[in-house]
Amino acid sequence: MAFSLKFSCGSCGFSISGWDEGNPYVEHPPGKRTYCYHPAREDIMREVAKQALGRSATDEMLDAFINKHSGNAPAHLCLDCGHTTLLDPGRDGMACGKCNSSNLRDTFNLTGAKCPKCGGTFFEGAFDAVS
């Protein structure tokens, strides 16, 4: 089960939600990410692997493909311009997709961060949703 926290600025009220599970994905062809959310995450990943390897691929082949071509790209808030970008810290350059700043924070971890709208501070996240 996934859950979301909502973070709000104590000065201007700007708010943003972040998911605890980030955004799991499988990538095929290279550069094309298919985001896979539960409850069908594993089924979606296996389907992408089957498309890449062929329907006759063994479970071991599918598992190896998924291990090599999957990751997690949580949403990151740019603390300079306020744009949100999906980035995999293990594979992507950590830069804002709009202004190229590296002043980013995972949207599930904004407590105490500077608000990009007014310079205030985000409160501790409040429970927002369950999926």
Low-confidence stretches: none
- Class per helix and strand makeup: alpha+beta
Give the rounded overall mean pLDDT.
93
Strand percentage, roughly?
Answer: 25-35%
Q: Note the total helix count.
A: 2
Largest sheet properties: 3 strands, antiparallel
- The whole-angstrom Rg is 17 Å
Sequence of strands across the biggest β-sheet? 2-1-9
Give the number of DSSP strands: 9
Order of helices and strands: EEEEHHEEEEE
Q: What general form does the structure show?
A: elongated
Proportion of residues in helical segments: 10-25%
Euclidean distance between termini CA atoms: 6 Å
Write the layout of secondary structure elements.
Layout (H helix, E strand, L loop, with lengths): L2 E6 L6 E5 L4 E4 L5 E3 L5 H13 L5 H11 E3 L2 E4 L5 E3 L17 E3 L19 E5 L1
Helix pairs in contact: 1-2
From the structure above, extract its key features:
about 130 residues; alpha+beta; about 25% strand; 9 strands
What do these coordinates show?
By secondary structure, the chain is an alpha+beta fold. Helix content is 18%, strand content 27%. It has two helices and nine strands; from the N terminus they run ββββααβββββ. The protein has helices spanning 41-53, 59-69, and strands spanning 3-8, 15-19, 24-27, 33-35, 70-72, 75-78, 84-86, 104-106, 126-130. The longest helix is centred in the middle third of the chain and has 13 residues, at 41-53. The model has no long low-confidence stretch (mean pLDDT 93).
